[in-house]
Amino acid sequence: MPLSNPSSAPFSNPSLAPISGPLSFLTNPSSQLPSSNPLASISNPSINPSSAPLVNPLSSWLSNPSLVPLVNPLSSSFTNPSLAPFINPLSSSSNPSLWPSSGPLSSLSNPISLSSGPLAPISSIPSISSNPLAWSTISSNAPSIPIASVAGPAMVSKFSGSGNKKASRPSYVVKGYDFKNTKGDFEFRNLVTFGDSLSDTGSAGRGAIYMADGNPMSFYNSYMSIYLTGKMNAPRSQGGTNYAVSGALVKWASSLLQLLGDPLALMRSKMSQQIDQYYADNQGKANAKDVFVLWGGGNDMTGDMMQAAMPWNWSKVLTGTQGYLDNKPRVLASYAGQLARHGAENVFVMGLPDPGLAPFSGSAIVGATVGSMGMFMGGTPLEFLDPGSWVLGAMDSYLRDKSHLVGSPVNNADEYMIDNYARMYHHFLPLIPTSLWRYAIIIPAQLQRNLVNSWNKDLQNTLKDQEGNVIYADIYGLWQEVQNDPFSYGFTNTLVGQCTLGKESTNCDKGDSYYHGDDGEVYMYTDWHHPSPQMNQIIAEYLLSIFNAPGYISSLARTEELNENVRHNFVNNHLKFARFDQREVGEANTFADILGGLDKDSRSLNPRNLSTYGIGLGTTYRAAPGLDLGAALAFTFGDKHPSNQLKYRHNSQSLSLFAQYKDESGLWGNIEGHVSREQMDDIRRSMQFLHKVRTEQGSTKGTVSGGSVTLGYDIPMPSLSEQYCLEWYAAPYISYTYNKYKVDGYTEEGNRSTSMQFKDQSRKSKLASVGVQLSSQSPNLDTNMDIAYVKDIDSEDFATEGRLKHFARGWHRSSRGIGKERKGWLSITPSVEYRVKKNVVIYGNINYNYGNSKTTQLNTAFGIKGSFK
C-alpha cells in the first residue's frame, strides 16, 4: 500500500514524466527489480554532506533571529546573484544601517522597491514576540512598530493530543496592520493563501505551525507576502489573509473507503470553506489587488490510501500515467477558475512536491506502524510509553552520524536515500539482507510518486481550461533539482530533518531534546515530511522568479525603445539644421555619426543604467527650393545588462527615409518613416535560490517600425550681436510620433522547473510633443536649442506572456507590476555645427529627457558631414 504524508503533503511532480533510477521499475512492472547499490560499502568522504564546504548560515535564524545573520530570504528572485549575506531583517528593524543594500528586501531601507515601489519604512516593519523572554526586534525608541505579540493559549494541534505540553505556548499575533488596503506604493494589497500545513502560519496558534521552533515567518508565503505587499501573511484568525488550515482537504471525502482511510476527514477544514470565508470577508468578490495561492492535496491523498489499494485502481497506482483516483485534482483546479470569475487577476496553483525522498518515505516501515503513535503521544505525559519514539529515535541517531553514511546525493538522490536507509535497517536487523530492505523502501516511495504524478497530470490538464491569469508552479521539479544537488543550494542534510524522526514540528522547539535546528546543519526538512525554513525560502524564490519572468523579458522591448530614441535623435538633428542650409537645388550632403544612448530608470524593472552605442550614415538631397529628401542607416550594438536578473547582446540595424519642406514665410514641416531589425542573443535570465545561482538561456529577434510628422514656424528674432550672430530664430512646433515594437517569442534552452517559453511581444507608442527651437546662424557656427514636453498619449505597458515549458497554460506579467514607467517627460536638446571648411562641417548634440530624478535618458550624436553637387 502506498504511504502518504500523514499531516499534509505527499510531494508531486508537475513534469509527470515517470521517474528513472532505482524507483522506476514500478512504472513498468515488467522491468527488473533494482539491485543493491554497488557503492553500498564504499564511503566517499569527499562528497559526504559532512564535508560540504558550505557553513550553515541559516541553521538557527528562525529560532533566534536577533542573533544570527542570514542570506536574504528573497535574495534570489530579483536580487544580485552575489552571495553576500546580510543581517536578518527581523533582527535589525531598529537599526536601518543594518538593512540590506540590494535585493528585494533592500527596499526596506531604500525607498524604491524593485517589485512595486517603496516598501514600508523601518518603523512599520513588524516585530514578533512569543513571550517576554523570546526574541524580539522591538526598538525602545520606535513605539510605532506594529508588534506580533503574545496571544492566549493556542488551540491543540490535531496530532499533539489533548495533553500536549505545547498547547498552552503563546502563539504569534500580528498587530498594527491594515489588511484591507494596498500598503504604500506596493503593487498588491494582500497575499491570500488557501491550503494546509504547508501554508498555515498559525491558524490555531503554535499547534498549527508545522515548523521547528514555530516561527511563522519561516514559511514561503511569509517571504512572498513581504516581497509583494510589504505585509506579513498572518492567519485570518489574527486579522490576516492566510486562510490555510493544517490538515485541510481539497474536497470532502466522497466514499466509505476514503472515510476508512482518513476517519478525521469530516472534521478537517476544506479549501472550499476557506475560499467561501474569503468571499464573506470581501463582499463576495476576489479583489484584483490580491495575489492568491492554492496549495493542497496531501491530506486528500492520505485518505485515498484505502481506495488506492483496491484492485480496480492498481493500474493507476503502479504506472502513474493514468488519471487520479477521483476528481479531487480537478476540483482544486476549478477553485482557480472560480477565483478568476470573482475578480482575481493572479492565482498561483502549486503542484505537490516529491514524496519519494522525504525522511518519512525512508522511515515509512516504522512510521506507518508503531511510529505513528508518536504523533499522538509526543509531548504528553504518556510520551515515555511510546515505543515508536524509541525505535525512530535510534534510527534518527544512526542517520545523523556521518560516519555511517555512504555515497552522495549529487545527481543520485534516490540511490543515496535508499542505500543509507537500507543500511540503517540492516544495522538494527542484520538477519534481513540489505537488498530486501531496499525493496521495502522503494515500493511505497514509488507508489506515492505514481499517485502524485496522476494528481498533477489531472491538475495541469484541468488548469489549461480555467479562466484567469493562472501561474502553475512545478514544485515537484524544483524538489528533485534541489535533492539532486543539495550542497550547491546550501543544504548539508537531506536524510533527516530539524526534528527527530517521528516528531512533528508542531511539538519541536528549541530546548527540546529532539530539536536539532541549532546543530550546525542546514536541513531540507523541518520534520520528516515538511520543508525547512531554507527550503521554504527556495520555494518563495522560485514562485517569484517564474511570476516575474515575463515582466523581465518584456524589457527586451524597452531596449528596442532606447535604440529607437538614439536613431530618432540622430535623424532629427540633421533635419533641424537642414532648414537653414543654403545649398542649391541638386546639391547633397553626406554625414557620418557616432551614436550613444543612456537610459536611467531606477523605478523600472531595469534598475541598472541601460546603454547603447553605434554608428550612423546618411545623405540629404536638395530636390527643389526648400525641399530636402534623405535617407539614413543606423547600427547600434552592445551587451545589455539592465538588471541582475537579465543580460544579453542586442544589435540593431535601422533604415530611415525622410523629407522636409520650408517655404519663404518660415512655415516648415517634415515627415519620416523608419524600420529596424533587432537581434537579442545569449539572453541570460538569472535567479538565486538560497546559495545557488541558476541561469536560463535563449535568443530571439524583433522589429521596430513607425514614423513621425512635425509642423513648425521659424520666427526671425532681433540679433543680440551682429558681429557674432547674423540671425536668430524662434520656432514653435508640434510633433506626433508613432512606433510599434515587436519581439518574437522564444523558448529557453533548459529543461528544468524554471525553464520557460515566452510569447511574442507587441507594444505601440504614441507620442505627442509641443516645443520650441531657438536657432542661431553665424558664418562658421550654427546652434539650436530644442525644448519640448513629450507625452505618451496612449501608453501600453511593456508586457508579455510566459509559461513553463512542460505546461501548456501561460500567464501574463507587465513591467508595470515590477516597476514604474514614465508617461511624460521634458526633452532638452542643445546642438551645434561648426564649419571646418566651406563644404565640411563637424557637429554634435546631446538630448536629455527628464521624467523625474529616477527616470532620465541621455542620447548623443557626434559626426561630420560634407556637401557635394
TrEMBL record:
Residue stretches in coiled coil: none
Origin superkingdom: Bacteria
PANTHER family assigned to the protein according to its UniProt record, in alphabetical order: GDSL ESTERASE/LIPASE EXL3, SGNH HYDROLASE-TYPE ESTERASE DOMAIN-CONTAINING PROTEIN
Listed Pfam families: Autotransporter (PF03797), Lipase_GDSL (PF00657)
MF terms in GO: hydrolase activity, acting on ester bonds
PROSITE patterns: AUTOTRANSPORTER (PS51208)
Protein's name in the database: Autotransporter domain-containing protein
Ranges of residues in domain Autotransporter: 583-868
Swiss-Prot/TrEMBL keywords: Signal
